[in-house]
Structures are given as C-alpha cells and as structure tokens.
Specification:
alpha/beta; 504 residues; Dihydrodipicolinate Reductase, domain 2; NADP binding; binds 6-O-phosphono-beta-D-glucopyranose; G6P_DH_AS; globular; Glucose-6-phosphate 1-dehydrogenase; Rossmann fold; NADP
C-alpha cells in the first residue's frame, strides 16, 4: 500500500452537504445509503448532513421530508426508529439557490461555525443539473470552504460529448484538485461488480484462460424493463448510448478486459481501465453502420400489462403531442479491444429500456474444444460459458459439458456450476451508494471515474453519435417487452453467434 492509500481512513468529523438535498436522488439513494451506514455505526461520529435546496423549509421541515423519504425508500424491516432519529438529528437544511450568488454566506457560517471545523472532512455532493456544477464549485471557493480535506461528488451526465465533458471537468478542476473529485458511476459500487475484480484477481484458475487464446467472445447486457417514466426531459437529450454505454457498459468492459494491476488501490485500477478504453478500436463511419444497432421502444405488452411507446411516454397524458423523437432507447454494438490479450475477440454490448426482462450480466464465451473427441456420442459439446450476473440474482454460473450417467455409450449433456451470492452469504447486500459514499468520506477514489477515463470514453463514443446524427435511418422500433430489435440478434448471427440469455 502507498501512503495515500493508508490515508484513506475514516475521519472523526464530516459535513456532508448535498446540493439538491430535497431532490429525487437525495431521497431515493443518498439519504437511505447514509442511513444504512449510520445504522451499522460506520459514519464518522461527528457527521452533519446539510441539505441545500431552494425549498423554503427549516431544519425541522427538512427532517420531516427526510423521514418521509426513508419511509418510502427503505424496506420496512430496515427501519430502526432509534437509527432514524439519529440520522434526522444529523440533518440540517439551507435554503439556497445554487444558480444564484445570493445567500452563500449562510453556508460559509454553517460550515465554519462548528467544533473542529479545521479537521472536518467536507463533502459537497452535486445532485443538481450539470450546468450548475461549475458555478457551484466557484461559489464554494469564494466562500472559502474548500480546503485540502474537501471533496466534491458529481453524478453523470458529465457532459454531453467530449467538449462539454472537458468544460465541466475544467470548471470543477479550477477549484478542486483531481484527487478531490469523485465522479460516480454507481455500477462500480455494485457488490457483484466489485466481485468481478476479486474473482479475476484473487483466484488463479481464470487467468490462463482469460485471453483471445481461449475466449471466443464476451457479451455484456444491461437490460431494463422500465421505460423512461418521468425522465423524458433528460433522456430525450441523452439516449441509451450516452446514458448507459458511455459509462456503465464501458466500465464493465474495462473490468473484464483490464490487466491485473500491481494491487487494487487508488490509481492502479484506474490506470488499467484507462488503458482498455484507449485500446478500443476507434469506430469509423462504416464500422458504425455495420457494428451498431439503435432502437426505440414502441407500445407493447410487458409483465405489467400494456405500456405506451417511447414517444407517448415523452408526450405524457396528451398523446396528441407525441414528438417524433429519434432518441435511441436501445443500443447493441460490437467493440474490440486492440491489445495483445484481446485482439480479435469481439465484445458485444447491449442495453435497452422496456425489454423483456431486467438483467445485467457479463457472459464470457470460451472457445470450442479443438477437436471432437467423443465420436458417436449423443449430444454435442457446447462452448463453456461463464455468466457473471450483476443483477438481479447476483452470482455466477459456469456452463460445462458432462456425461449423462448411465451405461451404453456416452451421452453429452450441458450442466452448470451455480454460485448464488444470496445463498453463499446470508447477509444483506449493500446498495452501491453505501459503498461509494463511504469511499468519498474516507477519500478513496478507486471506484470513481477519473477525468481521463471519462474523456477517453467520450472519445470512443463520439464517432458513433456523429454518424447516427448524420444518418437518415431512424432507430429501429421494437415492441416494449421484447429483447430489442431483430437487428441486434442479426449482429451476432452474422458472426455465427447468438446472445446468451440467462436461463440458457
Ligand atoms: C442510470 C441511468 O445511470 O442507471 C438510468 O441514467 C438507468 O437510465 C439506471 O435506469 C440503471 O441503474 P440500475 O442500477 O437500476 O441498473
């Protein structure tokens, strides 16, 4: 361990300021995560949570909102009355418009006027519109609350493209040093995603197989059953490529493809992920035409019953206004990592809303045995596959070929070795935000995206966006509740392959 890793320890005092403190992200994710950590006694003893928003409420009003939020978003069995009261006591509210220059002295006074102000770790969580990231940081600098223990947390989207991502990074970087900037990709906080690192690097059996020598291809799927719901305003300007591929799916790809770091710590993992992003084969216009598929959900039938199309979701209650949007709600593409380990191995990625099932998984498909050694046997060998299920049923499944018991010849049958985390570990699996927020408080950036990673991901994605923007072909329609457009299946069929579904 380096001295900076050792320094990532829990402070005694923390002021955790949430800009957008009454918003959806705060109520749904941030406060429930802080509650769970507090319940288990992991928050620094002297922690205050300062919600900043335009709501004209006092501390008591905020506490009432937080209480309602916890009751809504936490499972009833996790609500411990004493722990709820303890968290509420930590909560304060400041009425402040992050877009205006008025009233910031109140935040200054609140942060400075406390015991141990000079030893307190200040976290500034920007759960607000990205256009406010830069101005908010400037104000924080003006009121002199950014010291070397301060940290800023940003949610995606970090930019809309490479140029705007650079602008945001520059603006925040004028106030905070890179080591103080925590860019959240919540997929990196998921237990099963972290376990991918452990599976690869705390075991030896996979490593000799983990390359183009034995791996035929890799599939990464993040399928959702939800539609865009009330997020149409944001989503219609983003689309699935920006919303999911540029960050979550590329991060998963990096963890699968990266080289072993010298140890799992602050910069090493990020250095290795960056190398993968930089090794992605750039997408020329003809590659985009051949190797990408974009789709948009039409009305369809799901397990919840009939659901409207994307356009109708955007229009809301008045379908007359259904806009003619070309925003993609589904993407499938074929990528290649051009390095010694992976050259020639396709990485197929797909993600979509309103698909037939909710599943996030990585499937590593190994090559067929070099020759058929069981002549006359019944059944066929199927390639070995390792399914790494990120959600909802976290675990792993290794598909093998076995001999079916019985006399009289050899019958080959597929079987699987199953590891379910729920069965193996009889304990609650913490939400991604719990891990990530504690890492922010501790000052450990390993699971956060560094500036160069975000920008490398945008560089790779941009030619796809540009080509699509020029295209006269609209996204392919797929009925809600289905696996996406047929073209996504054809993308693999063309290569003699098929998407592996979880239960296969
Ligand atoms: C978010 C996207 O980053 O991830 C959403 O903006 C998406 O559109 C969500 O629904 C998926 O996260 P999870 O954890 O539910 O898979």
């Amino acid at each position: 361990m380096t001295s900076s890793d050792v320094a990532a320890t829990l402070p005694q005092a923390c002021d955790f300021t949430v800009f957008g403190g009454t918003g959806d992200l705060a109520m749904r994710k941030i406060l429930p995560a802080l509650y769970h950590r507090d319940l288990e006694g992991h928050l620094p003893p002297d922690t205050r949570i300062i919600g900043v928003s335009r709501s004209e409420i006092d501390d008591d009003g905020y506490r009432a909102e937080v209480r309602a939020g916890l009751e809504t978003y936490l499972a009833p069995e996790h609500l411990d009355p004493a722990a709820v009261e303890r968290l509420l006591e930590r909560c304060h509210h400041l009425c402040l418009d992050a877009g205006s220059s008025e009233g910031w002295h109140l935040l200054h006074d609140l942060l400075k006027d406390r015991e141990h102000a000079d030893e307190t770790v200040r976290v500034f969580y920007l759960a607000v519109a990205p256009r406010l990231f830069g101005p908010t940081c400037e104000r924080l600098a003006e009121i002199d609350v950014v010291d070397e223990r301060a940290r800023v947390v940003m949610e995606k989207p970090i930019g809309h493209d490479l140029a705007s991502a650079r602008e945001v990074n520059d603006a925040v970087g004028r106030v905070f040093e890179e080591r103080q900037i925590f860019r959240i990709d919540h997929y990196l906080g998921k237990e099963s995603v972290q376990n991918l690192l452990v599976t690869r690097f705390a075991n030896t059996f996979l490593e000799p197989l983990w390359s183009s020598r034995w791996v035929d291809h890799v599939q990464i799927t993040v399928a959702e059953t939800v539609g865009v719901g009330g997020r149409g305003g944001y989503y219609d300007h983003a689309g699935a490529l920006r919303d999911m591929v540029q960050n979550h799916l590329l991060q998963l790809l990096c963890l699968v493809a990266m080289e072993p770091p010298t140890y799992v710590g602050r910069e090493n993992v990020r250095d290795e992920k960056l190398k993968v992003l930089q090794a992605l084969k750039p997408m020329a216009p003809e590659d985009v035409d051949r190797d990408t598929v974009r789709g948009q959900y039409a009305a369809g039938l799901t397990a919840e019953g009939p659901v409207p199309s994307y356009a109708d979701d955007l229009a809301g209650p008045d379908p007359q206004d259904a806009p003619d949007s070309w925003t993609e709600t589904f993407v499938a593409l074929k990528a290649e990592v051009r390095n010694w380990r992976w050259a020639g191995v396709p990485f197929y990625l797909r993600t979509g809303k309103r698909m037939d099932r909710r599943v996030s998984e990585i499937v590593v498909v190994f090559k067929e045995p070099p020759h058929a050694m069981f002549p006359g046997s019944e059944g066929a060998t199927t390639p070995n596959r390792l399914h790494i299920c990120v959600q909802p049923d976290e675990g792993m499944r290794l598909h093998l070929t076995a001999k079916e018991p019985g006399p009289g010849g050899i019958r080959l049958r597929p079987v699987s070795l199953d590891l379910s985390y729920a069965d193996a570990f009889d304990q609650r699996s913490p939400e991604a935000y719990e891990r990530l927020l504690m890492d922010v408080i501790r000052g450990n950036p390993t699971l956060f995206m560094r500036r160069d990673e975000v920008e490398a991901a945008w560089s790779w994605v941009e030619p796809v966006l540009a080509r699509w923007a020029d295209s006269s072909e609209r996204p392919r329609r797929y009925p809600a509740g289905t696996p996406g457009p047929y073209a996504a299946a054809a993308l693999l069929e063309r290569d003699g392959r098929a998407w592996q579904e979880t239960d296969q």
